[in-house]
């Protein structure tokens, strides 16, 4: 019922000109957001914040698009629920999958920067006669360029015994 | 033709029919969001794994082209919103002209995108095992370009679909089909275009401004 009522109000309230004005204001705000994103990317904020700020601005811009261009400001009820639900599940998907990777033992993550420098956490109990010699990585530019299909040889440094 | 003439027999009135159509469109857009959500998840994981590689790869994209395309798409969203606004007030011809402007912006977007892609092809900035750029040796660069081409390619496909929808709406608007108060198709087609804009708003900082 609320949807029907608010739609009637919208039709009524945009009798003459001011309705279009709203779209122009949103457009200006979107342009401001875009230039802000661009300017802040040139400033090079410290690592976690450059992404967070950019995503915050992008979220703000998308809310403007959804609320005013796509009329969710006027249409309450089920349509808002559908949008909010899909956003919720995307946030859940991304955050859980990234958290999974973030909380793994680093060596199990392929190509993670820390992996290459990391010492094994203890004596290698899986290999009977000590760890294998690390293969030379310098002579493998072709594998480097062929994408991540090619698994890297585990660069295990020889433990001092 | 009166707006009531558009009511299908299984709806008691036009308002409920419009509500049902809008709800269905939002459900469809939700599936679109989830489709791109999966790709954004892949992007998040590989950016987490290959952070420096993604940053290095991003610098090989043209920020100017990405920024111009953002402005182009935002402005095209405005013209679509205005087209619905005018169609709603019985000005079908104005709405059709605004949709034509939108299509022109969409062509500009695709032209810039095509220029970017041909530039990437020349430099060997290609997905996965086709990657052969000599200057860029950072770990994770092939994965960045895999995601770049899938994300921008799927988005470009949506631009093409949206252009088709808007072109049909433009002809119908020009003919005066929506001059009598029934503008739901214009609104729903516009919503599809706004979704295309919405996804690009996220692609822009994630791909070009790592």
Please provide a written account of the structure.
The complex is a heterodimer of chains A (about 160) and B (about 210). Helices cover about 60% and strands about 0% of the residues of chain A. With about 160 residues, chain A is mainly α. Chain A has 2 domains: about 1-90, no CATH class; about 105-150, no CATH class. Chain B is mainly α and about 210 residues long. Chain B has a single domain (about 15-210), classed as Cytochrome c oxidase, subunit III, four-helix bundle (Four Helix Bundle (Hemerythrin (Met), subunit A), Up-down Bundle), CATH 1.20.120.80. Chain B is about 75% helix and about 0% strand. Chain B has 6 helices and no strands. Chain B has helices at about 15-50, 50-60, 65-90, 90-125, 140-175, 185-210. In chain B, helix 1 runs parallel beside helix 6 and helix 3 packs antiparallel against helix 6 (about 185-210). The termini of chain B are far apart. At the A-B interface, helix 1, helix 2, helix 3, helix 4 and helix 6 of A face helix 1, helix 2, helix 3, helix 5 and helix 6 of B.
Number of domains of chain A: 2
Largest sheet of chain A: none
- Mean pLDDT reading of chain B: 92
Give the oligomer, counting copies of the same chain as homo and different chains as hetero.
heterodimer
What fraction strand of chain A? under 5%
Ends apart, CA distance between termini of chain A: 77 Å
Uncertain residue segments of chain A = 1-17
Beta-strand content bin of chain B: under 5%
Order of helices and strands of chain A: HHHHHH
Query: Globular, elongated, flat, extended or rod-shaped: what is the shape of chain B?
Result: elongated
The radius of gyration computed from the alpha-carbon positions of chain A, rounded to a whole number of angstroms, is 26 Å
Query: What percent of residues of chain B adopt helix (DSSP H or I)?
Result: over 70%
- Number of individual domains of chain B: 1
Low-confidence stretches of chain B: none
The number of helical runs of chain B is 6
